[in-house]
Amino acid sequence: MLQMKEIQMVDLRTQYEKVKPEIDTAIAEVLNSSAFINGPAVKLFQDELAAYTGSKHAIGCANGTDALQVACMALELKPGDEVITTDFTFVSTVEILCLLGLKPVLADINPQTFNIDVREIERKITQRTKAIIPVHLYGQCAEMEEIMKLAEKHNLFVIEDTAQALGADYQFSDGKIKKAGTIGHIGTTSFFPSKNLGCYGDGGALFTNDDNLAHQIRSIVNHGQRVRYEYDLIGVNSRLDTLQAAILRVKLPHLDKYAETRNAAADYYDKAFNGISGVKTPFRALYSTHVFHQYTLTFDGIERDKLKESLAEKGIPAMIYYPKPLHAHPAYKDLNYTDKDFPVAMNLSRRVLSLPMHTELDEEQLQYITGTVINLL
Hints:
alpha/beta; seven-stranded mixed sheet; three-stranded antiparallel sheet; about 40% helix
């Protein structure tokens, strides 16, 4: 009997092996051309990514954090401007606001989707509010139709953080469908290796349907240049390098299949945990497809941390995304929030646990993971 393959949170090696000939050829072509910065693969990938998402413009950059920073710069947000975003996400979203001298205004989350609560956004809008940054957490869109209505009502910009949900579809009440990242004024994403569309290093991109914003973004990511050695804007050095673009070109046509595979694994998990006392499976909103960047369980009356340790002893990795909301970290104490300001985020941060989720999970592994979790409860 063959031994079961080692379980990983993300199995990048096996995924690579399935497209190895194409990847190796793409890398070799870049090496042979020696066009390592702004080579042909960069423009080709940007055009293909724009076509995939339905966005008029897709512009590569060095990473997802830079994408958020560049978006704020392109919108000409000024020090002191308030930007409303979620308290329950990865640090990049708030980090870049502080670096630019903007004021992060944190909002609590919806207890079902874990995405930013639209009612909390509205409650926190002031005369100084200039933008909203919803994060499509775990692979499912925030309530973008309502967020865009709020933005229009109060004349605010919307920057979508799509790092965890590239490829997800959002359906509006009139039946119209748009890809995550193409609804707000600017969308941003990350190609960090573990993302649903990941490169083999760092990478990111921005999306917009606004020609003027696209012009700004292209200049900002390249030192503020529109013409070489002519600096019209203060910019940054944040280009998607040619090797990563070449790799992403190979993987982009597989993205929808990757989402299907992740959904199949999620369906297996859902069925296994259905009806298990104290275990809540991920909520799936009717307005958004889910691309399952993470598969996150919520526990009631179960010692989450002890379960995580026991799973590790059984060869099953699990992760907590996120063990503390952003307001609770020392770096952001000057925002002057307390735990009482975010009852939902605080509650969920103590109860969530993400199981292995990637494109290479097989039935034997899924059976072992679910059986082990259930036996440990």
